[in-house]
């Protein structure tokens, strides 16, 4: 019975589970239906956790008259103890105001606790944040990271990522058992214990590069993928395409030092990188240039330097028009 309560609480603290209950996105629906198929003994816990979250959500928007009357009665008892002659004239206005204030404070507390913590970077910005468990996350430009405001020591640590980030996950144990750290993207769930890895969710796919430790990927269709240091795994839930290869992780995390590394990157791919990094769309006018490539490492905080390097490397002209770069 105790294990059942622990599982219910774990589900309620899971950010992806909360999102499924509150919004019912197709990807989350598929994931949790698959999860219940694989764990039929947990269906009761799932239903109980769903009901509890919905009750909590309802409580943040609804206050019953009975609750209000109860607050008023308690306040009146305190006011009755006052000896001020004007007490009877001001008691009810004060009681009503105090009750309203108390109710609003209660609602505000619930809303605050249920609202995820969110970090967001602008184009060209890199930000390092510390999570409640001591893990460190470095967010690349134009990225978002969110997590539940309250983390329990004995349940999975869950964050959601859009964009790109490098994770340095602290190792946590409870009762001698490791506590998982889970990163949820639109395509996959990344499950780790304590490790360092890079995640990129741009271009409608999720790319994971493992620098150290061990990572397990859980795809929406129930497939699991194990990663070792030096592995790169890329998956798109839309195309159902999975690739895995060995790489040098340092080439994929140079952005943390405000550097851009290119290894035979085509001009078409470079245009996408510029748009993701600096927020400026790129149009390659001459189609014969699209597959020409560039290699090297340059400062990431100097777009003009990058554009000059492109001019010299490809012998092209670059024109600015309405915040769009035209390459010809």
TrEMBL record:
Top-rank taxon, per record: Bacteria
Q: Which molecular function term from Gene Ontology is one that the record holds?
A: sigma factor antagonist activity
Bilayer-crossing residues are 92-113
The record's Pfam families line, in alphabetical order, gives: FecR, FecR_C
Could you tell me the keywords of this UniProt record? Membrane, Transmembrane, Transmembrane helix
What region holds the FecR protein domain?
Answer: 118-216
Where does the record place the Protein FecR C-terminal domain? 260-325
Q: Which InterPro entries match?
A: FecR, FecR_C, Ferrdict_sens_TM
Name of the molecule in the record:
Ferric-dicitrate binding protein FerR, regulates iron transport through sigma-19
């Amino acid at each position: 019975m105790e294990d059942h309560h622990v599982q219910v609480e774990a589900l309620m603290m899971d950010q992806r589970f909360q999102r499924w209950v509150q919004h019912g996105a197709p990807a989350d629906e598929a994931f949790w239906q698959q999860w219940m198929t694989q764990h039929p003994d947990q269906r009761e816990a799932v239903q109980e956790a769903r009901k509890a979250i919905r009750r909590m959500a309802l409580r943040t928007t609804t206050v019953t008259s009975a609750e209000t009357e109860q607050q008023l009665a308690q306040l009146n008892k305190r006011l009755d103890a006052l000896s001020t002659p004007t007490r009877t004239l001001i008691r009810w206005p004060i009681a009503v105001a105090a009750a309203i204030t108390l109710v609003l404070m209660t609602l505000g507390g619930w809303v605050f606790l249920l609202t995820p913590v969110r970090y967001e970077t602008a184009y060209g910005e890199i930000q390092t944040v510390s999570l409640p468990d001591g893990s460190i996350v470095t967010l690349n430009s134009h990225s978002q990271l969110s997590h539940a405001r309250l983390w329990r020591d004995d349940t999975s640590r869950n964050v959601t990522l859009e964009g790109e980030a490098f994770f340095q996950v602290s190792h946590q144990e409870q009762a001698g058992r490791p506590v998982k750290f889970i990163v949820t993207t639109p395509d996959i769930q990344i499950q780790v214990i304590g490790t360092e890895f890079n995640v990129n969710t741009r271009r409608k796919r999720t790319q994971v590069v493992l620098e150290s430790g061990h990572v397990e990927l859980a795809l929406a269709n129930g497939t699991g993928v194990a990663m070792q240091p030096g592995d790169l795994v890329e998956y798109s839930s839309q195309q159902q395409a999975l690739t895995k290869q060995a790489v040098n992780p340092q080439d994929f995390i140079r952005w943390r030092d405000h550097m851009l590394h290119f290894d035979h990157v085509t001009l078409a791919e470079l245009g996408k990188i510029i748009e993701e990094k600096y927020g400026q769309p790129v149009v390659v006018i001459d189609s014969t240039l699209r597959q020409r490539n560039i290699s090297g490492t340059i400062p990431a905080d100097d777009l003009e330097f990058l554009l000059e390097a492109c001019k010299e490397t490809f012998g092209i002209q670059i024109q600015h028009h309405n915040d769009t770069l035209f390459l010809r």
